[in-house]
Amino acid sequence: MEERHIIVPRAARYYTLGDARTAKRVWFVLHGYGQLARYFLRSFEGLEKDLLIVAPEGLSRFYTDAGHSRVGATWMTREDREREIDDHVQYLDLLADRMLQECPQAQHGQVLGFSQGVATAARWSMHGRTALQRLVLWGGGLPAEMNVDRLQTAWKDKHVDLVAGQTDAIVTEEQGRQQDALLNAAGVPHAYHVHPGGHALDPLTLTRLLAIG
C-alpha cells in the first residue's frame, strides 16, 4: 500500500459582515469545532461599524447528531495532519488576499479564533504569508508544537489577547493561565482576559476587543 496525494480545486464557503468600501480594519473570525460560519458570525452582528468581519468555514463538514439533522464543520483532525494544516493555511491566505484587496482603507488583518479556531488561527499566523496584526485566542489551546523558541521568533512583533471563561469546562481558566505563562516566557506582547461565562463568546468582552485599533 502506498499513500499518495493529489491537489484538487474545491469551493470554500465564507460569510462577511460589514462594508468593505468603508472598513478600516478586517477581522477574520474562525469558528470552533462542529460550528458553521453563518451561525458563528451572528455573535458579531452590531459590531461591524468601520469593520469587515469575515467568517471562513472549515473545509470538512459532518453531521453532529445521530438523526443527521444538524451539520457542523471542523478545521482538521489528526488524520493526514500536515496536509490538512497546509490546506487551511493556503485557504485562509487566499481568502485574506481577496478581502484585503476589497478593503482600500485596511492595511492589515486581525484574527479571532474560538475553541478549535484558536489552533487554526495560531498556525495561520505562524505558517501563512498574511500580515496579521493582532490575534485574539478565545477558549482554545495553542498547538503543542508552539514552544517558547518558535513563539519568540514568530510573535515578537504581534499583539495577542488570550480570553478565558471562568466557567468554561472545555478549556479551563487554569489552562488559560498556563498559556499566559508560556507567552510571558516567550516575551510575546499580550493581555489575558477572563469573562464570567463559559465556553462561548462573551458579548461585552467581544465588543471591547473588536473596538481596539
What key phrases describe this protein's structure?
single chain; 213 residues; alpha/beta; Rossmann fold; 7-stranded mixed beta sheet; two-stranded antiparallel sheet; 24% strand; globular
Write up what this structure looks like:
The protein has 213 residues and is an alpha/beta fold. The chain has a single domain (14-211), classed as Alpha/Beta hydrolase fold, catalytic domain (Rossmann fold, 3-Layer(aba) Sandwich). The chain is 32% helix and 24% strand. The protein has 6 helices and 9 strands, in the order ββαβββαβαβαβαβα. It has helices at residues 37-41, 81-102, 116-127, 148-154, 173-186, 203-211, and strands at 14-18, 25-30, 51-56, 60-63, 71-74, 109-114, 132-138, 159-165, 190-195. The strands form 2 sheets. A 7-stranded mixed β-sheet has the order 1-3-2-6-7-8-9, sandwiched between helices. The chain has a two-stranded antiparallel ribbon with strand order 4-5. Helix 1 (37-41) links the parallel strand 2 and strand 3. Helix 2 packs across helix 3 (116-127) and helix 4 (148-154) packs across helix 5 (173-186). The longest helix is centred in the middle third of the chain and has 22 residues, at 81-102.
